[in-house]
Amino acid sequence: xxxxxxxxxxxxxxxxxxxxxxxxxxxxxxxxxxxxxxxxxxxxxxxxxxxxxxxxxxxxxxxxxxxxxxxxxxxxxxxxxxxxxxxxxxxxxxxxxxxxxxxxxxxxxxxxxxxxxxxxxxxxxxxxxxxxxxxxxxxxxxxxxxxxxxxxxxxxxxxxxxxxxxxxxxxxxxxxxxxxxxxxxxxxxxxxxxxxxxxxxxxxxxxxxxxxxxxxxxxxxxxxxxxxxxxxxxxxxxxxxxxxxxxxxxxxxxxxxxxxxxxxxxxxxxxxxxxxxxxxxxxxxxxxxxxxxxxxxxxxxxxxxxxxxxxxxxxxxxxxxxxxxxxxxxxxxxxxxxxxxxxxxxxxxxxxxxxxxxxxxxxxxxxxxxxxxxxxxxxxxxxxxxxxxxxxxxxxxxxxxxxxxxxxxxxxxxxxxxxxxxxxxxxxxxxxxxxxxxxxxxxxxxxxxxxxxxxxxxxxxxxxxxxxxxxxxxxxxxxxxxxxxxxxxxxxxxxxxxxxxxxxxxxxxxxxxxxx
Length: 516
Ligand SMILES: Cc1cc2nc3c(=O)[nH]c(=O)nc-3n(C[C@H](O)[C@H](O)[C@H](O)COP(=O)(O)OP(=O)(O)OC[C@H]3O[C@@H](n4cnc5c(N)ncnc54)[C@H](O)[C@@H]3O)c2cc1C
Prior knowledge:
Layout: E1 8-12, H1 16-28, E2 38-43, H2 59-67, H3 71-77, E3 81-83, E4 85-89, E5 99-103, H4 115-122, H5 128-132, H6 135-140, E6 160-162, H7 165-178, E7 183-186, E8 189-194, E9 200-205, E10 210-212, E11 215-218, H8 225-230, E12 235-237, E13 246-252, E14 265-270, E15 273-279, E16 284-290, H9 297-310, E17 321-324, E18 328-330, E19 334-335, E20 338-340, E21 346-347, H10 354-368, H11 374-404, H12 412-417, H13 425-433, H14 453-462, H15 477-497, H16 501-511
Parallel strand pairs: 1-2, 1-11, 2-7, 4-14, 11-20
Antiparallel strand pairs: 3-6, 4-5, 8-9, 9-10, 12-18, 13-16, 13-17, 14-15, 15-16, 18-21, 19-20
Helix pairs in contact: 1-7, 1-10, 3-16, 4-15, 10-11
Bound molecules: flavin-adenine dinucleotide.
């Protein structure tokens, strides 16, 4: 069996992870052609997809382009909007005016000059991102990241999306079935039949009998039916590092249909967590993520309702939906002929929207490195496990960076978040390096890091970090000044030339964007 060819990939689960993975594999391996790889997706009619996950990274543009969807259709059918980054409010001191941006565009001249050193030396009272990048200024004015004449997926300013998770799943499903040749089995998986060597031979289903395959992709959400339940691959809990384990989510109507749509996700820190605020064309998605060890559900709901009211929402918003989760990830992701993608491989709080980015990276690596034979699969599995173990560790260190530099003292949550034992060793090490110099590309040596070096700088300096004096490295002051002027100049020229987020989205929904 080990020399047998991989001809049939079975994806279990029809949430965002299942459809994105099935779509990418089908598109890259000719599933719609008679000689292509056969791709089947089985989804239980009894178990709903999680239905949250509304913020993406710019990588989603590439993923959608690769699977061959039209961006205009995506905007129309997924209630999608542009996301140009995140705005963090009250994370540093907890005061009203405490805010900083993490935009998706790199600082002007990033990598050419030591921007951080010059900023600290001469402009320390201006927020780093607002000096080094034009993009926070576009966000502050609610501008779109492109014009009506800019082709699909092309950008003037780098962007990802906000979207309706339920509609996104339906949109991907339709595209996978109608265009990409994915076979669909609506059925509940009851059990697993194994080969003698322990590989999965087939899924036992409620209505369709046995469903055989060569490679099984576990996209069953937090159940982790194949990797976790069947194979018992251990779950590595991370609550000692990142405390949040519960979310309360609500959909908030706009006061009027023509209200501006925010160009960024706003994350507002609370006493025991933070609240996300995501603007879609038809509504906002708002949710409170918190640590159940540091607050009660009632208190968390009160904070959420106060936020909704304070941000222009109605007094009587519906009861929020509660979602519990165990922060962590699996010790391995690819085991024998089974690989987990999405929540079945792990989940850490939704700060910085890393979950869908990891789904895209997983789906892309499986599609790019699809083993031809079973014997080759063990090598691919080792490479996959090594890559994703590294990525999960990086995601955790990056998310933790948002907490460790806070100066908030209003609750045990914030104090305990800075306790040395709650900080991963890799982050301790990076902070030691950054005591005298900024994060540089060499600190993140792998290709396709989940978060680029610029993101680490935006958070580090946004949270108020200052390097200590003593470095003898060249500071490139004049060059940095030139880049800061360039960023300001770009903002000045872009602001009147770009439509508002809502104007452009309305245009896309009625007229569409030019095709590439
Ligand atoms: C509160 C919260 C906020 C989030 N926000 C973001 C965000 O802003 N950005 C981001 O990138 N991510 C976010 N995420 C993560 C994001 O929601 C998920 O990564 C994404 O939705 C993928 O989920 P999934 O497809 O892995 O699982 P699910 O959506 O849970 O899908 C599981 C699928 O498995 C199927 N299934 C289960 N059991 C069986 C069975 N026995 N037989 C057959 N099928 C079965 C179900 O029918 C379903 O189709 C958030 C998560 C949470 C909890």
